[in-house]
Amino acid sequence: MDRRRITAIGVLVAAVGAAAAVTLPSFAGEGTAPRGGAPAASDGVAPEVVDAMSRDLSLSREQATKRLRTERWAAGTVARLRGELGEDYGGSWLSADGATLTVAVADPARAAQVTAAGAVPKQVDRGVRELDAVKSRLDSAGGKAGPDVSGWYVDVATNSVVVLAQPGAEAAGRRFAEASGVPAGSVRVRAVAEAPRPLFDVRGGDAFFINNAGRCSVGFSVVGGFLTAGHCGRPGDRTTGANRIAQGTFAASSFPGDDWAVVEVNGEWTPQGVVNDFNGGTVPVNGSTEAPVGASVCRSGSTTGTRCGVIQAKNATVNYPEGTVTGLTRTNVCAEPGDSGGAWLSGDQAQGVTSGGSGDCTQGGVTFFQPVNEILQRNNLTLVTAAGRSAPAAPPAGGDATAPPATAAPGAPPAGEQTGCTGQVSRTGEIAAGRAQNQPDGRWFRAAAGSQEACLDAPEGTLAAVQLQRFTGTSFETVASADTSDGVARLTAGTPAGVYRYRVVGLDGEGAYTLAFSAR
């Protein structure tokens, strides 16, 4: 494939409104903060991630850990506010030091709601949906951008859409924006000497080969296979592992337009919920909670190892020589050929797979990744996590029980656990914001047609959800859910006969939980 460099351009838009310099409070020691405050502890993050953040962000280990705690709180807060604010939500971002979360609002009357959640409100003219609509107009006109325009993205901090143009060719960027018919003032052009290109001959996690020729990298494991970059292969292409043993087949791929692919592996390969740290160990993947703009993010690649930086923008469009790719996340993390398709993590949360970039790890650069949740949702896939990696890709023939064994007598959870939930089968565990566990015991159970009931009891001050998921033949799909916002979460669903599991998801806080459910 053509690897010609293209030069990137940039656009800046004036910020609307002013924000007070408010810093989130410090959280030291153990425990759980009240709703609206950052969690007091950040556990489960591999020391290799903390080390990489310390190196690339010039932080002490204590500062890196503190930043991760704040970012975990910010991710949960943004998720709640986005739903509550609706069309008035104008985007959110963390400050350069990761200590201040700003949430933009199009309606000044909603500012108090943001302040109450522990964030800093900023009044803007356009909600993020309007910004996305502006960018969609640019996407539709992308074929007219020309070689002097390398991409565009939504910049929530300036409440605008940034168009990137080659230095000296800003006029070409302005002509492109005007020709697309976007509202005046919603777009500004920024000149930046970038040359994004797909990172071929690369691997982010373990290497794999395509048709015994091209080489790319594993992104994240999913039930039955793994994710990688779309420019690495097309449906039907066969893969071998780094050991040159037959591995799998590309089942789906999208590039350009998007840059993702799904590889289904054969029975000799087992997807695991970890990422190679290229330092003799692995980093666990415990979920895929999306980190906000300004959050730290680390990339794993076989050429340059683990590299960290911050998320600069989301919903970015890049004009590669092979075509336009939209919906990418822009970062200031460096990458080089050999890193394409690799895994991006914020703490222990999966963020995306490497698409392409500009620059290198000597001079620095810009790298884009395809968000992982979009890939999972569009392909109805289940991310394999470190806590649930024993879950099979498909129910094995024979040997399965009609119902999993109970850990205690029906209706009698173990001593010391919450007692608001009773059921035929009981399981306990530890949960924290951004993490999920599959029950029973990371596996599945068979159920006859009829009604299924479950309840989830979590400590006061935490928020968790329970999901009933049914195996569809290729992945587990959620069929019913409930959360603990009103106390004990209770779920009832009429379901056909099949293979099921429960998934407990932490939304805020941390602590022990009890899950009880029927088993027929």
Quick structural overview:
Keywords: Disulfide bond, Hydrolase, Protease, Serine protease, Signal, Zymogen. The chain is mainly β and 520 residues long.
Mean of all residue-level pLDDT scores: 80
- Sheet with most strands: strand arrangement: 9-8-12-13-14-11-10
End-to-end distance, in Å? Answer: 55 Å
In DSSP terms (H or I, runs of 4 or more residues), the helix count works out at: 6
Biggest sheet layout: 7 strands, antiparallel
Helix vs. strand class = mainly beta
The helix content, as a percent range, equals: 10-25%
Shape: globular
What is the count of β-strands? 31
Strand content: 35-45%
Radius of gyration: 23 Å
Low-confidence stretches: 1-42, 200-204, 389-419
Domain Peptidase S1: 226-376
Region (Disordered): 389-423
Domain Peptidase S1A alpha-lytic prodomain: 127-184
Biased composition (Low complexity): 389-416
What does the secondary structure layout of this molecule look like, with pairings?
Blueprint: H1 47-56, H2 61-85, E1 89-94, E2 101-105, H3 111-116, E3 120-123, H4 128-140, E4 149-155, E5 160-165, H5 170-180, E6 187-191, E7 197-198, E8 207-210, E9 214-217, E10 221-222, E11 225-228, E12 238-241, E13 246-254, E14 260-265, E15 274-276, E16 282-284, E17 296-301, E18 305-320, E19 323-331, E20 343-346, E21 349-360, E22 364-371, H6 372-379, E23 425-432, E24 436-439, E25 445-447, E26 450-457, E27 463-471, E28 476-483, E29 489-495, E30 498-508, E31 510-517
Parallel strand pairs: 2-3, 5-6
Antiparallel strand pairs: 1-2, 4-5, 4-18, 7-21, 8-9, 8-12, 10-11, 11-14, 12-13, 13-14, 15-16, 17-18, 17-20, 18-19, 19-22, 20-21, 21-22, 23-31, 24-30, 25-30, 26-29, 26-31, 27-28, 27-30
Domain Peptidase S1A alpha-lytic prodomain: 127-184
Organism: Micromonospora sicca
Domain Peptidase S1: 226-376
